[in-house]
Amino acid sequence: MTQEPPVIVLVRGDITRQHVDAIVNAANSSLLGGGGVDGAIHRRGGPEILAECRALRASHYGKGLPTGQAVATTAGRLDARHVIHTVGPVWQATGSDPSLLASCYRESLRVADELGARTVAFPAISTGVYAWPMEDAARIAVETVRGTETAVEEVRFVLFDDQAYAAFAAHT
């Protein structure tokens, strides 16, 4: 029996303020924090997130988390149970691989299913310092979520500004 795709909700706001089962972090491969969404999640979530990320680096991900993959940690002080870290691809005018961006969403949903998460908040992965064009990133994100079999009931795209919100709204 095929499951219904999750309900897609768009929110203009701060992903660190979302009350959901899991928040997806647009992480860098080191898993040790950074700027943008990654830095905000680590700052608000507290040292528990970084401690679990360090443990992952010491065990399974000594060379870092590969692009397109996902792994979960505690959410620390966030209003969520888990943070799912995924590494988006860097946009390049030639040679950018949209399947890697799609993989971030698919793999995050797979991890969410393993965790039993029913509500998941995503940022617009790879659209910040990784410079993926917003319109293309929104299309890939929405199509991938709609096309991925998952037990997640609600996917919330939490978008930082009006441009991102408009791009995602055009595809929902």
Automatic annotation (TrEMBL):
Presence of the UniProt keyword Hydrolase in the record: yes
Entry keyword annotation includes Hydrolase: yes
SUPFAM superfamilies reported in the protein's UniProt record: Macro domain-like
Coiled-coil regions listed in the entry: none
GO MF annotations in UniProt: O-acetyl-ADP-ribose deacetylase activity
CDD domains per the UniProt record, alphabetical: Macro_OAADPr_deacetylase (cd02908)
PROSITE patterns: MACRO
Pfam families assigned to the protein according to its UniProt record, in alphabetical order: Macro
EC number, as in UniProt: 3.1.1.106
Superkingdom per UniProt: Bacteria
Domain Macro intervals: 1-172
The entry's keywords: Hydrolase
Protein name, per record: O-acetyl-ADP-ribose deacetylase
